[in-house]
Amino acid sequence: MKKLFLALIVTSQFAVAQNQTKTTPNQTKTDSTDTHQLAEVFITANRTATKRRETPVAISKLTAQSINETKAVAAYEIINKTPGVLMVNLGNEQHSMAIRQPMTTNAYYLYLEDGLPIRPMGIFNHNALLEINQFNLQSIEVVKGPVSSLYGPEAVGGTINFISLKPSINPEFKFGIQADQWGYKRLQAAGGATIGKIGFHIAGISSLQENSWMTFSDYNKDNLNIRIDYNISPTTRLISNTMWGKYYSDMSGGVNENDFYNRDYKSTSDFTYRKSDALRTRLTLEHDWNENASSYLTTYHRDNKLGQNPSYGIRWSAINNPTTATGEINSNNFKSYGIIGQHTQKFAFLNTKLVAGALYDFSPVTYWAYRTDLKANLNPDGLTVNSYEVIAERPDVKIADYAADIYNTAGYAQLSFNPIEKVIITLGGRYDNMKIDYNNTLDQSTGEKLYDRFTFKAGANYNPFDNAGFYGNYSQGFAPPGITSIFRAKPRTGGTTGVPAEFYYNLKPATFENYEIGGWITLFKNKLNFDYALYYMDGKNELLSVKLENNDTDYRSAGETRHKGIEFGLNYKPSQQINFRLGGTYAQHSYIAFEVSDKSTDALQNLNGKEMPNAPRWSANSEVYYYPNWLPNFRTSIEWQHVGGYYQNQINTVKYAGYDIFNARIGYKIHNIEIYGNVMNLTDKLYAYNVSRANLSTSQPAYLAAAPRTFLMGIQYNFSLR
């Protein structure tokens, strides 16, 4: 298999998603795999509508057709169709990510909703995408690699932009229900129209999970999105977007090795949870000055409340007092008030295009966390826990307690031009300044932290043929430490009575330098599309976590890390009935200089030369689609997801073998009714989404078990006066 992949790589890579194509008499569909790739238009890479052949980055697009046919319960089912991307399911729409990084929850990804970050700088949350309404998506654009020079800090490993549905010209309405055999069910509805100068679109979902295959894993989620467009004139538009979301989930956590292999899907806790209340509103004024100039001004507000009694916060040691443990309860609340303005100007000289803008964001935040005392009921082996019980909540023992005002300001500009025929040069830069005024109750300190950075990128596209092109770029990434890390008491002393807490005040911003080349080719009258991207990225002061023996986390800045790999994708459509796609990545993520101890008595001094844990070298996703001419409006597909083996710990002593799973999807439209079914994990394979352990030889692995074979059934009514 590796030889086959390497052979493909020699020719070209990653599959971007695709434009709508003409329908056949037998099918009313827009094809998600028939690409007119070089003419495909993207918004995310340059903040304005730009053709793929003019964009010197690795970028992919998932179209409405692909989203609609996936019928996803959670966003990872859609996102993982993108070459080079592995979104890791942590259960109940919780997730981590792996784009040019190991599977991680660190703040090296930027999640956008219609081009605006879901979170302000400094308050990253790896679960932010659980707030996304899957029934409100027009497309998803994924940029791989640093784009900090345009979108700012945290846009390092990748940037994902969720583009919402716009108001339809004619009245449209759709309503659906879906459910599986494990107690999951969802209601969803959306509709919109344009009446005179005003267009509107409303989309809502309500999800509920009860009595699943894993004990203590219920959840419910409600989302509502409202968009209103007011076309003031042919050249001026006023657009309002509002998102409201409410989420509550049990946190079942991982299972021990014996229970995993015996398929004893039993949570060790019945008290852990995650809850979220989110409100985002924005108002955008757009104006086209002429055919060569346009501007927009957006004001926005965010209001988020996140509370947890997290399963990952349970700290237990098999060596010291194995019948006791501790946990925590925390709350992270913030609001944002911001404004962003941007102007785009085209010039006849060298076909020059200039994009420039500025942003101001004020986000006050409060955070507190305190300890809970737990009893650990052991399994007969004495090395693992059967269940935890809460003995007492200890609000008197604080782990963190702070308030902060975050001020983010930024200015950016990007210039592209044609110095010679078939060559496009792109230059861009951005200055970010994040100031934090804080009050840390635990050490009774007040002060100011300042993180600022200028990031730069330079790229070039060379398109020698109508059906092929190449690009190269150099880009910088920047990510300040999240304030939750800065003001959290260090585990060695935090929460110990009579001992002053120590904090991570000296954590440095992480910086990255990325070098990349890529290209694309279309053959056989656009029936075959093939892309590739090769990257080499060095990180300095990358914030990494060290998993301690009691499951606590210590934060360290690595002196240097290295991320390098190849991303590739192939789309082939031999006929109107059959489509095929293959996308994936081969990557290596390594510690170059990472000191984990400055004590001469510690056996483990550094991790230099080690591979990073949870970093599979190979991952791939492939799918075959069939749209039979003999049965109009019918579709079916088989999807293959491959995740290669990876080290469970940082010292590279134990590996998890990875997995291969298959998913099947089927759907049929009868007039305005669509009936569909998905079979996830078709072969009922036993596998884990993630396996991790601490570095001690006695450390036990935690398996985040994946669902057994799951049958999802759904029905949807679609109405349109089109």
From TrEMBL:
User: Any signal peptide, and if so, which residues?
Assistant: 1-17
Protein name according to UniProt: TonB-dependent receptor
UniProt cross-references to CDD domains, sorted A to Z? ligand_gated_channel (cd01347)
Lineage here is:
Bacteria, Pseudomonadati, Bacteroidota, Flavobacteriia, Flavobacteriales
Kindly list the places in or outside the cell where this protein is found, as annotated in its UniProt entry: Cell outer membrane
- What is the recorded membrane topology of this protein? Multi-pass membrane protein
Keywords on record: Cell outer membrane, Ion transport, Iron, Iron transport, Membrane, Receptor, Signal, TonB box, Transmembrane, Transmembrane beta strand, Transport
Q: What organism does this protein naturally occur in?
A: Flavobacterium flavipallidum
One Pfam family recorded for the sequence: TonB_dep_Rec_b-barrel
What InterPro entries has UniProt attached to this entry?
A: Beta-barrel_TonB (IPR000531), Beta-barrel_TonB_sf (IPR036942), Plug_dom (IPR012910), Plug_dom_sf (IPR037066), TonB-dep_rcpt-like (IPR039426)
Chief localisation class: membrane
Start and end of every TonB-dependent receptor plug domain? 52-159
Q: Which family is it part of?
A: Belongs to the TonB-dependent receptor family.
- Where in this chain does the record put each TonB-dependent receptor-like beta-barrel domain? 231-682
